[in-house]
Amino acid sequence: MDIIQLVVVGALGALAAMMANKGIAVFNDGLRPVMPEYLEGVIGKKELAATSFAVSFGLVIGFGIPVSLGASVILVHSILLMTDIIGTWTPEGKKGTIIAGIIGALWGIGITIGLQVVVDLFALMPVNFLDALGAVGTPIVVGFAVFPALAIAYQHGFKKGALTLGLSTLALVLVKKFGTITLESGTTFTLSAEGMALLVGMILMVFFAVRVKGEGTDNQNLVSIFVERVTRIKKNALLLSLTGGLVAAATSLVIIAGDPISLNLMSEGKFGEAALAAFARGIGFIPLVFSTAIVTGVYSPSGTTFVFVIGILLQGHPVFAFIAGAIVMFIEIMLLNGAAKGLDRFPGVREMGEHIRTSMNRVLEIALLIGGALASEQIAPGIGYFWLIGVYLLNQTAKKPLVNMAVGPVAAIALGIIVNILYVLGLWAPIVVG
């Protein structure tokens, strides 16, 4: 592991944990609305810490880490959800902030090194199933291109969603057949069929959204009512910009990714497609992050997630990524008021954000479930599908079920461990996995 990578991820962990401790920024969207209650004395430190642990820890263990194990890139949830917990659990005051920074840095470095250690341990197992885990991400790349059609169907109805799916499918087929272009110099390059299908869907998604008429007042009212909280965020703009720069730098070094889709694309070296996927995700997060920021006075350490796009586009250039990421984060914060008013003028675009997030989550749930099934079947041919279906359905009956997105990766990892135990006991025939 390069020392620069460890310094960057350690600094990110430290700064994110310190900001969570001071109530400046938290990564978990579900925790952000709780922060003002703590800052205003409505709830105490114990209640905040308990809430933070409840909403974040399961996602770290059940989603962030398992998804990261299937690739060479860490899902940022593994770091920033944990720094939320660290920041809220450490004491108040300067001493607590310093402690949060130290633990946050150790966690960032530890998870980066630790995941590699886990990968190395898998390689020592009699049945190495790590290669098979790569199949978890296989359906994500092509499946992601479906989300605009689903978002349109949620917002504008089945017919427009079906039309979008049809045109996206047509684009996918045509680019797969005719997408290889040969230049006069003899150089050839191939367009991404999935990327073009996604682009067609996104263009239609925006087209339908801007056609929605109506005048809203919600966000304008929010700006006037919560002007103090917006001012609070702007006072911390420099600190938040540093965090945005670190996120972009870490992404540029291919240490972290903002979502499973761009993570899998980055691990395959498809940085152009990964940037497009991250950009689409950023569009969906503008209304959520901006609205919660205006209401709570608490921002996200990764902003509206466009810093990930910067990092991907400047892959291999961490210094430039840091500078550009910091600038993008600063601009985001300065545009809080104006963006809220802009969203108010286009109610369809404002509503589109919610549908984008919902459709992305649904696509990821299905894609990761199918990927988990493919990986499980590679690990244990003839048993994998049975295992995955059983785990998924039983999880629905649990008192504290895993989030649906985590079931596929967790089931595949669990099956790999079971197969190794059976092999050691002489109950499993030696097979070549992957």
Automatic annotation (TrEMBL):
It comes from the Bacteria. InterPro entries: Uncharacterised_YhfT. This is YhfT family protein. Keywords: Membrane, Transmembrane, Transmembrane helix. Pfam families: YhfT. The chain crosses the membrane at residues 49-76, 97-126, 132-154, 161-179, 191-210, 237-258, 278-299, 306-331, 366-394, 406-431. The keyword Nucleus does not apply.
